[in-house]
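Annotators were shown the component list below and the corresponding predicted structure, then asked to write short factual statements about the assembly.
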Amino acid sequence: MDAQMHFLAALPEPSRFGDVLMAFLSIVFEGAPYILLGTILSGLIDAFLPAKFLERVLPKNKGLATIMAGFLGLIFPVCECAIVPVIRRLVQKGLPLGCAVTYMLAAPIVNPVVLVSTMTAFKEFQGLDTIATAAHPNGILGALADTAPMSLSRMFVGYIVAVLVGLVVMRFKPAQVLKEKIVESIEKGAIPVDGPVKRISFDSKLVHAMRTAMRDFLDTGMYFAIGVMITSVFNTQVNQAILDRVASNEFVALPSIMMLAMVLSLCSTSDAFIAAPMASFTFAAKLAFLVFGPMMDIKLLFMYSSVFKRRVVVALFLGLLLVIGLLVEPWAAMIEHLAKK
Amino acid sequence: MSTTRVVTHLVGVALLLLWGGVLLYFFISGRVAAYLPPDGIFRPMVLASGIGLLILGVFNLATMGSEDAGCGDHDCGHDHDHDHKHDHSGCGHDHSHDHAHDHAHKDGCCGHGEHDHKHDHSECGHDHSHDHDHSHGAHDHAHGILDESGPLGRTVAILILSVPLVLAAAMTPDRYSGAAVVNKGLYNQNYASTANADQFTLRKEGKPTAKVADAPPAPAAVALPPANVARVPGSAAPATASVATSNMGPGGPSPEKVADMVARDASKPAGKADAKSYGSFTLDDLKAQVPMSKDGNFILEVPELYYTAGDKEVQGVLSGQSVETTAQVMPEKVNNEDGKRLRILRMLVQCCAADARPYSVPVEFAEKAPTFKDMAWVKVTGIMGYKQEGGQLVPVIQAKEIKETTAPDNAMLY
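Structure shown to annotators:
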């Protein structure tokens, strides 16, 4: 304890600048491990996953494949920091663009870890034990809408939005959406190989995987660092109570709470705990916060830029804002109707 | 490898070692405690990724000269000479430009072997004579920012990857200033929230906390506490505080038996400002659950006090009791025209310090409140009470004593 006091005394006095540094470090500590995980995975995929593997495994119908991709988060639960490098690599390995975007958007929401944290934050575990016996006029969905409205809505709306965006992106050519250097590498992958490929030793594959991981970590890390710098300024220097005042206005509430999700750049596993206590916001507004945040925020804006063309990132931002903004109000009304006994 | 490549590779390794070093330093020194919660995988992940980054860096350093399966050498991807040999035979023209891809790279692990493209064009062609000289870096799919940018871009990338991290690691105070705490909502508390109520409820674990709203309504058994007990707002008296204590001695926790709390609000649905009913809770429960100081004060954390505002029965029991808490202090800006109040707070972290939120309650003094340095640590003892203010029920401590103290081991609650 004594040693700790000396140690604390040696630290700088708290200041506004110190607040920014503190927030910066804490997001780095939270996010960097997952970026490393994602980039090592990405390196291994690059070195060891056969080029045509994904094409063989996925359904031939791209629309169907996109619909399936929305559930991948249930099998590979990753939050938004880890997904970007993985997606980048999977696209290069031939994962259809629509699938990739759907997986990227859905995985940080449709994901068991996030489900549990949302249910915890919104107190939706209570009542689950009695749900089987509850005879609800609207069946199991009605009962779920009654006991766990937010978790249910977050999973469903997150999934729907991710698939919608995926189906739209599917219509474009990779060259229209992806950064040039990513497109080039896909084209290379598509060139048929004449003659037998010499077997590559495991060692040199591993060297390749680790070199790729290093470059990917630095690549993603740079965009991450930019995003976290901006976020930590907003996180500590802007009074978030300003939002309470706009919360009461129906038309301003939705965009402003999504902007809050944007600037806070929270991890999808923890954002429900921030949303739940916001008493002044409606159910629909909180839902927008919980669906928009994992799909788009400042750090993601920059991390996406390492994969997609800039105007695609901007279009994604505006599209998500619009789609989620339009979807949550009717959805909330529907849930309320379903839950009614 | 060219010199540039070697330098880039080394810089990459150095950056990995830097990131890994910072993560490891904060874990080993224990300073990570100010940033991440102790339970869950957040702190172990810092250790693991710190080690992981060091290993990745050292591995790449050690294997710098080794052959990369992706393309033997990193120079390869950049200077292929494509010599296309096409054989067009369309529309009577007879152009025969010969594109012959002759890639120089070694067999790739990713399905790129030696490419030998022979295009046979037979569409209406013009006499085009392509002379492709691609210099794409796509053959091993991984040329990152450091490899592909020019000298300026490269420098900027290196700076972005290093300066903020080094600056933050060297100059972080490991704690927030009052300004950040205000921005994070110090003065905008919602006492009816139940977001983390389970964590801080005074109810015993395993004790049934089912809502009793479905039970047949019983008449509200209300006996307002004695005069010295903090006032219950008159307007909402029967609805918000259903207190059924008997002989509660002035200033001390003396009642021998406390009537079962069956009182509930049957007259109107619980609004935003009202406490909810979660079933019976007695003084015995409180004593069994909460440690007491030797002076007979219940030792509670600020979030525990905070959440009592949402639970009618707990509130009924705690109201009038002497409590003690250690917290950080800030000047009060809400309902404090006469300057008799301070605000005490604890920061609660979910996943990392960036999502820290202050939980705070006002402390009221008989006279003008003493002044402290912002965010100083204080130990407060006082009588617990509840007041209807600004549309919500606010837990207020009527201060008996406040004195500066040292920071606890864990400055943030998790």
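Statements collected:
1. Chain A touches chain B through 100 residues (CB under 8 Å).
2. The two ends of chain A are 57 Å apart (CA to CA).
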